[in-house]
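WARN retry 2 of 3 for item q-0093 after timeout on previous attempt; input resubmitted unchanged.
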Amino acid sequence: MKSKFTIISYFVLFLSCAFTFLIIKTIPVFINNSYYKDKLFPKIFIPTLLIFVFIYLIVGELRTKIIIIEINKNEIKIKRFLGLKTETYKFSEVEGWKYSHLTSRGGTYEYLYLYKNNKKIIKISEFYHKNYFQLKNKIQTNFKNLGYEQFALMDELKEIFK
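OK item q-0093 returned
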């Protein structure tokens, strides 16, 4: 079984490309334009904000959430960064799974986390994966349910930089 992306996943990819373009075009303006020579706040704040959002999109969303998942007979294959990095986990290596709910303006979305050595190794999201519930059913039949995990924004931010 292979995961399929929702349209929103492609929008995040588009945003990542747009921020790359924006950074390439904007940062040199703040450095080279004489208007900003004596204005320290915009010279530091705007490029820093753009770079932070870019890092969040690339490292946070593309690496950890927008992943291709293939569940085979005895292994799970994860492709991160749109297939540039592949990881394979045998079923025996995975301790189990937990689920969580994230509420936003658009609704409440379920996340499923697979654990190895008490660390999250895979995040599957109803928000990003069109066939989330088929993936969840496959995982439920093959792995131990470790319970519910309360969603914590600080934990999500920490995982971005792991």
